[in-house]
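for the recovery benchmark. tokens below, seq after
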């Protein structure tokens, strides 16, 4: 039994150190693949930036200087899409199969069973999939203001700054990270825990073999022979364990095609093995030396271990192990809860996978030309109508809830400034707490009336009626709301129309304000509207609670929807070629020249969500591993108690003593050490999780001690009777 426990503690220490080392390597190599010798290029674009000209500029520059310029985009929480200008010249890209992509092809770190995958690259195992596309395909996700260049050469960076300066202000950021950044603290604590556990078990094992050591000494064995004789039973087991690990490593390398890292992995594996074996041999060496120095008079060759301070040592060992176990558990659970809270705050962003925002670029020469402006407005209005028909377009404008940074972690909403300046009521004013949506938004984010029905079913689609969704708590302001929004409706439908009509020479719109009406649909209080914008709404979840919602209908002047198309129009597409999927709509409405690309909505929070989920998976695995360790440690502690007391316990068993009476000191020790450890850890962390952990640990201890104790007692009965 004691040899089995020693082997188990060795395996746990070896496995935890391998897990820590390889996790560090995977994290470091994965980061190096996309960031090693790369510099971040931040672009503050000017209003005149042309996307086509900008893309041409960076592609020509990358070819000329043999560098790769990339944009990193998350379309979901499992895949990073990388759009690059020159993959062939990126030193971090190792193609293991196929060819580099052309046109709409891509390469990836695994085989995706898609027709347009042209090749596969070698990367460390990761929960994150990587897809590399040509930069031309960035129109499907939107050009961002952060790029990465595969060079840290100052001369090249200076030249790039000159090339891009016409498009905006350029800043370079060094993203080099310290190796300590990739250290998983939870895994490091587990390594420390298994090291302490392995050390204690090894020490107890050596002391349990005290009698054998002195017998070897009496027979005239040298220290070297004694050491070899004591370690010999483990050599065969260790060779099996290491052989299994080597086979597993070989399978891992070939299965995941880790050919570019094979020497690193093999070297890392043997370094870990040497460390673990050296620690084991060092403990054995020191303990045998100490026992031999104590002299033969310190042992009873006929019987039990004369380790006088065994009980104290046992309690100290249990205290240390329990304290470390609780600390690691609290650290892991706290991290898990924080990550879960972070994911819950981003819960709404998960439904934006496959959702894209329309990007519009209006030529400067139409700004002061109302006739040309009207033509563009009409085209964008037609675009909205056709996109709505074919893609069920979603509209939400939350500009009034944009967050304005006041510095020192303080911000306010835009409507708060606007209504303060105008002196208007923020709850009823056009500049106040309101959003603009269309009927499709209510499918995406349902809002319910006070009767419990979907508000979409209550909308009046009359051309001379503007529908509003108003929280029940604003019923007292009904007349004020009607008055303000009727003026707004009349302005957008008639007055703006007449501004264009006068300039173009068309007949004026003769609709009177008395011809228009406001429909108020009262909805339940405390309902949230997701803004689809990381810069608006609540800072934690980008939600807006209980605004007035203006329902857009194509009855206003086309300038109204044109303004919203530029920043607030969305549609779903899961093809990863979102822009190409609306090419027919763009051509049919003659808006191809005004809509150069679309942007993924998910990418605004994608990296944050993906990183949080990966860390959460790691913490869950860690907690499972810790639970297994807890059981094994209790088994070890129980064995350490029974080893020197087996004769006494068996005699009590023969005389009919109950299990609880015979093992009262074991249970008392377990209870006291757990409570003291819990108090010590609680003082350090001040976390309620400590109390829950102690209760769970006490239950696990009691059940495990009872089961393991009976097994050990029954197994050793025959041995005792034989006098072994």
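predicted aa per position
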């Amino acid at each position: 039994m004691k040899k089995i426990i020693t082997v188990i503690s060795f395996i746990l220490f070896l496995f935890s150190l391998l897990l820590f080392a390889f996790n560090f390597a995977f994290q470091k190599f994965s980061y190096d693949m996309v960031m090693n010798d790369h510099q971040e290029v931040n672009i503050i674009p000017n209003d005149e930036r042309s996307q086509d000209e900008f893309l041409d500029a960076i592609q020509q520059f990358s070819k000329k200087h043999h560098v790769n310029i990339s944009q990193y985009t998350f379309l979901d929480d499992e895949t990073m899409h990388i759009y690059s200008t020159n993959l062939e010249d990126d030193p971090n890209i190792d193609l293991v199969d196929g060819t580099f992509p052309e046109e709409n092809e891509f390469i990836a770190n695994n085989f995706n069973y898609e027709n347009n995958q042209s090749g596969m690259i070698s990367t460390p195992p990761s929960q994150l999939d990587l897809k590399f596309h040509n930069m031309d395909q960035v129109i499907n996700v939107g050009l961002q203001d952060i790029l990465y260049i595969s060079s840290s050469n100052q001369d090249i960076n200076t030249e790039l700054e000159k090339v891009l300066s016409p498009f905006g202000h350029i800043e370079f950021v060094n993203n080099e990270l310290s190796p300590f950044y990739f250290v998983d603290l939870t895994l490091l604590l587990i390594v420390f825990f298994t090291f302490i556990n392995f050390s204690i078990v090894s020490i107890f094992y050596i002391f349990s073999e005290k009698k054998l050591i002195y017998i070897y000494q009496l027979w005239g064995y040298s220290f070297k022979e004694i050491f070899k004789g004591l370690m010999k039973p483990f050599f065969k087991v260790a060779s099996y364990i290491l052989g299994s690990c080597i086979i597993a490593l070989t399978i891992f390398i070939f299965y995941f095609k880790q050919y570019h890292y094979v020497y690193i992995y093999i070297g890392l594996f043997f370094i870990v093995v040497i460390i673990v074996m050296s620690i084991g041999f060092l403990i054995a060496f020191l303990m045998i030396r100490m026992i031999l120095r104590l002299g033969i008079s310190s042992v009873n060759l006929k019987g039990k271990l004369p380790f006088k301070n065994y009980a104290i040592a046992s309690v100290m060992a249990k205290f240390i192990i329990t304290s470390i176990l609780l600390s690691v558990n609290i650290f892991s659970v706290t991290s898990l809860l924080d990550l879960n809270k972070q994911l819950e705050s981003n819960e709404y962003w998960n439904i934006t996978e496959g959702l894209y925002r329309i990007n519009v670029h209006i030529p400067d020469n139409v700004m002061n030309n109302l006739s040309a402006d009207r033509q563009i407005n009409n085209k964008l209005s037609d675009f909205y109508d056709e996109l709505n028909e074919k893609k069920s377009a979603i509209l939400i404008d939350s500009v009034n809830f944009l967050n304005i940074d006041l510095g020192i972690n303080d911000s306010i909403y835009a409507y708060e400034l606007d209504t303060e300046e105008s002196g208007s009521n923020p709850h009823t004013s056009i500049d106040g707490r309101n959003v603009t949506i269309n009927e499709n938004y209510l499918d995406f984010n349902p809002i319910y009336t006070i009767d419990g029905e979907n508000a979409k079913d209550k909308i009046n689609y009359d051309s001379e009626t503007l529908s509003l969704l108003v929280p029940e708590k604003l019923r007292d302001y009904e007349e004020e709301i009607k008055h303000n929004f009727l003026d707004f409706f009349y302005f957008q439908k008639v007055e703006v129309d007449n501004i264009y009509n006068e300039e173009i020479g068309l007949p004026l719109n003769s609709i009177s304000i008395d011809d228009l009406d406001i429909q108020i649909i009262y909805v339940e209080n405390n309902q949230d509207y997701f803004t689809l914008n990381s810069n608006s709404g609540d800072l934690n979840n980008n939600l807006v609670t209980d605004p007035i919602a203006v329902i857009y209908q194509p009855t206003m002047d086309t300038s109204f929807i044109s303004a919203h198309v530029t920043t607030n129009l969305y549609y779903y597409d899961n093809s990863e070629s979102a822009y190409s999927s609306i090419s027919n709509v763009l051509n049919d409405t003659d808006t191809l020249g005004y809509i150069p690309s679309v942007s993924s909505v998910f990418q605004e929070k994608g990296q944050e969500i993906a990183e949080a989920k990966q860390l959460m998976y790691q913490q869950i695995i860690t907690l499972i591993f810790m639970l297994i360790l807890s059981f094994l440690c209790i088994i070890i502690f129980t064995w350490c108690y029974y080893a020197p007391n087996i004769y006494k316990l068996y005699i009590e068993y023969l005389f009919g003593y109950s299990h609880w009476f015979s093992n009262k000191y074991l249970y008392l020790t377990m209870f006291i050490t757990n409570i003291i450890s819990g108090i010590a850890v609680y003082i350090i962390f001040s976390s309620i999780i400590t109390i829950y952990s102690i209760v769970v640990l006490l239950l696990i201890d009691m059940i495990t001690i009872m089961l393991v104790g009976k097994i050990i007692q029954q197994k050793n009965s025959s041995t005792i009777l034989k006098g072994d």
